[in-house]
Amino acid sequence: MSSQHVVAGLDIGGTKISAVLCDRSGTVLAAGVVPAPAREGGPAMTAAAAALVRSLEQSSGLVAVAAGVGAAGVIDQASGTVRAASESFTDWVGYAIGPELSNALGVPVSAENDVNAFLMGELRWGSVAGSEHAIGITLGTGVGGAIAIDGRIMSGPHGAAGEIGHTPGYSELVCTCGQVGHLETLASGRSIEARYAERIGAVGTSGIAIAELARAGDADAAAVFDAAGHALALAIATAANLFDVVDVVVGGGVREAWDVLEPSLSRTLAQNAPISGIPLAVHPARLGGRAVALGAAALAWPLAVDGAPGIATEADVAAPASPVGMTA
User: Fold this and answer.
1) What's the CATH class of domain 130-284?
2) pTM for the structure as a whole
């Protein structure tokens, strides 16, 4: 095995588990994906994640000195335990994913919410690299959010800071969480599909297809994306005033429809500029499907600090690096 120091970064979701081995510059030296056994419970998820890391180590000849995991749900960073999760997971709430994965891999593990990890990845190597005050938003099956102040992720006392998707006041629709009017009812991929189905009276059109229809001039498809962009902009404007941030990065599957989402978003933001007068920049995410795993890896480096050559120092971790190329 190589003596090169690397860390593992994992993205644990409801359908798949992704992992990377990367060095401290963010260069991906090995990467892989396996299905997530979310319905089989926490131990099965841990076993699948650990097996993926081991397979990457074996194929690359590298050994991770620490690991980070960005997991779906609200994560208590102090204990590495899942505090809340969606119905897609069985026996996930209360599961100590951090300690269990550490036991399985034999290295220290940092556990974080997946959207927090996404923002860290984009802060260090993505579209907001070099920024210290930023909001990260993911538009996927749901809507997730994260906040960075002074270059560090704000987690809150319960690991739930930044949950912008469940802020109210955007509609009269029932959210997946059971409450009414949350941002997620308009801006998530699932909601975009549902809102389009309501307009045309038929279900089954995918978000990708709706975006294509919007590009082709379909009025109903365009209206759905306009509503999503408008609601998202209002949420961003509120958060920007609360936290005095200057950068926002938007990722997730809906980011692929940025060209039809962004016009409404920009129009609404122009009418709701931050009170500071400082221009707010909204960026589409750059790291794609690896953002969470890379962010989790970045969060793992402090666990590997030991002064050895190639091991990150606290200063290295605190200061975002310049964007670098990634190899598969």
Assistant:
1) alpha beta
2) 0.88
